[in-house]
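=== RUN LOG ===
request id: a7f3
mode: sequence -> structure
chains: 1
length: 202
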Amino acid sequence: MKREENKESKTEKAIYVYCIAAGNEEADFGNIGLENNYVYSVSYKDLSAVVHSCMIEPYKSEDKEKVKAWATAHEKVVEAALEQFGTVLPLGFDTIIKGEAPATPEDNLRNWIRDDYENLKQKIARIENKAEYGVQISWDPKIIGEKLVEDNAEINQLNEEIKSKSKGLAYMYRQKLENLLKKEMEITSEKYFKDFYEKIKN
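=== RESULT ===
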């Protein structure tokens, strides 16, 4: 019922696409989209796009909280689609397909899926039964810097030499020490990245 109201009331300007899902069942998700827009599916063969009707203009705002709310809503729709269909290929924020008379936005969406069908199928096959995770590791530069001064012989020696230099020379040595520390921290961060990645990738 709501879906029919949605189709009749929309201006056929454009549709916002959240993801492509494996399956062609008709799905109505209700008003869970960006700004509480009504979300539904558009199918082509055995694939479905999860969308809501929108204007052609992209979602842009200087209000960070508003942008954050949009991003959160986008993610929630993808999660709802994942629960409904099992496997979904998320699309980037602000993926909008417009209609060009006499074609509707849905027509153009189906045409895009048709033209990119094999590629989409391959991507979906690769992510089937998999989940995506983002892992962030942070460190305290001060603590890492102190550890490098202790463990790195060259840095440690330079740090000790500064103590015996005049103010002018000490300043130059400190600049050299900072540059060396920066370089070593970049090397260390890359090493940590590789070590942690090997531990968690399985």
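=== NOTES ===
The mean pLDDT is 87.
The first helix runs from residue 2 to 9.
=== END ===
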